[in-house]
Input
Amino acid sequence: MSAVLLFIISLFVSCSGTTGENNLLLLLASRSDPHRYLYVTNPVGGTVSMFSIEKDTGQLTQLDPPNIAAGTWPNGIALHPNRKYLYAGGTDTIWMFSIDSSTGALSPLAPASLTNGGANEDIAIHPSRKFGYFMNKNAPNILMYGIDDSGLLAALAPPSLPSGASMRFRMHPSGKFIYVPYNGQVFMHGIDSSTGQLVDLDPATIPLATSANYACIHPGGKFLYASAGTRIYMLGIDTATGQLSLLTPDHVTTSGSVFSFCVHPSGNYAYAASENLVFMFSVNSATGQLSPLDPATIATGNSPFHHLVGHPGGGYLYVSSLQTDTIYQYIIEKTTGLLTPMDPPNVPAGDGPDRMVIR
Output
């Protein structure tokens, strides 16, 4: 499988965001896809939890042991395109792990961590496998690293580029561009494929009517969605230049604040996390426009959720709540995109589960 295809898989698995003290994780998984393990950061517990995914039912089962230490407030998480390494970003520190391909268990690399003084709120790994990018919303900037063949990180020179303080930034599946929604605009950066350095596009930002913090890119690479309160902005992407332009109409409105957003790998459906609901949309893959499904929402319990992630197979949806320390499990109906709870509807997770990726 090519590095670009593996990156697209990683992109869909992590296309979302999180904020505050409650967290949503939506994960789509194929019944037959070889990506059998799910990893979730637990900021409250300072760990990463590990699950296997039953390929025929989508059910999650904790590994033994179920957690591995990951420092203080691990939040961002990303899978290396070769599927051998995993990175978790916490307060001031990046944690680096190897993955046992037969069991899914994580083990610390040597050294196990890298101190950088950043918030490491979000992570993106370049499809070339050579570079990693970490959102430091404290500065705010994007921290840039080279990645060697053993999975270890080393800061590039210069080590960072000023940007917005986004909760969730997104790399284009081509590996040419990064988009950072923040404070009523989206920052647009280009990526030098030979050096890994980021540069500002010209113009470097596009304005939005309201402040957005979470971005997601359509799997076709032609559209970007940015959630902002009760709005989801819809933008076109010029795949040659990386420039964004607002669609017409430029947003859809929801009845509650949207905390994250995710597009199904088919490109035909999308899901948005809001309070104790998940909003469900159809997507016009030619125009990028969103339309509510019927019904338009499904309840996810009494806890507000914030995070959406997805698996390219598109068979299942997982919703994780920091407040209840559980992951809700749903089946996605292939022809309609509608959600149905699994039996059981949820499984125990770690202390404050947040963001997820699937191997």
Notes: Residues 189 and 201 are 5 Å apart (CA to CA). DSSP finds one helix and 27 strands in the chain. The longest helix spans residues 3-13.
